[in-house]
Amino acid sequence: MAAYPSNIALGIDIGGSGIKGAPVDLETGTFFAPRHRIPTPQPATPEAVAATVAELVQHFDPDGELPVGIDLPAPIIDGVIPSMANLDKSWAGVNGAELFANVLDRPVTLVNDADAAGYAEVRYGAAVGRSGLTIVLTLGTGIGSALVVNDVLVPNTELGHVELDGYDAETRASSAVYERENLSYKQWAKRLQRYLSYLEGLFFPSVFIIGGGISRKSEKFLPLIDTRAPLIPARLLNTAGIVGSALLAAEAVGRAPETITPLPPLPEKENEGGKADEPRRTKAKKAGSRKKNTSKAGKLAPKSNKGNKSKQSSTSKKDKVKKAKKKHKKA
Questions:
Q1: pLDDT tens per residue, range 228-241
Q2: Cα 303 from Cα 197, distance rounded (Å)
Q3: Which CATH architecture fits 1-125+236-263?
Q4: Domain 129-234+266-296 in CATH 3.40.190.150
Q5: Which of 91, 118, 232, 267 is deepest in the core (most CB within 10 A)?
């Protein structure tokens, strides 16, 4: 295989059903080659998953020239995985960084999957150029979160486990709950409103980025939510984990790109702090006023034939009664 350009790194995303990877062009945040996917082994023990990752790395980089970033659905502290969500429970306490480095015979960067996705959105996607605190939320089976302050990742946040009304927020407001409980967008938006308002009171972010597969339908529910900070749908979607992992790996070994070209901006329909809801509210008022005006117009309009007939009928009856009374008096 020909040597890769210096601006390429390999990103790998480990999920409960599939392990996916691709070499990433770090200047644009796009795939340098098509993504490759291998089903996650069952049971998904550390050894079995590491062997599958090695197969994936061999597919793209048999010569070992690329930095490798790997994301997992777990918090990672100094390379150690204290708990695991969607893989085998035997991962708890494993030094994942050492495990993968030994199997791949090269250093790796291990990162939480939501952190990887969030970092990609900040550097290439929806939050490019935003100063202050960015909160990226991934709505799926649960709620993943990433906090990035002025392009610096604050790792291992689990904002889906914030307690609201006695429950983990993700058990009330994830997209899985929306589907499972057959909620309307309006009903689900009320739950998201409660959750986001709570986070806003804790952190006062500059922007919320909303990711996960359901963010493709963001126009259905984001305009129903009113927050101080802008609410913007994610841009990279299912490529974000791979892209973020690759970039973090390159930065860890001093191979960060000199320049980054972010994705082009979206058209001006983003949900800036609930502002996108204002046209809806205005429409509703107009519709209501039209209905009201029609009603008034009905009262002010000339009386219908039906009303005239009714009145004429009533008048003729009175005349008949008067005539009958006169005849009775004469008699």
A1: 999 999 999 899 99
A2: 53
A3: 2-Layer Sandwich (3.30)
A4: no
A5: 118
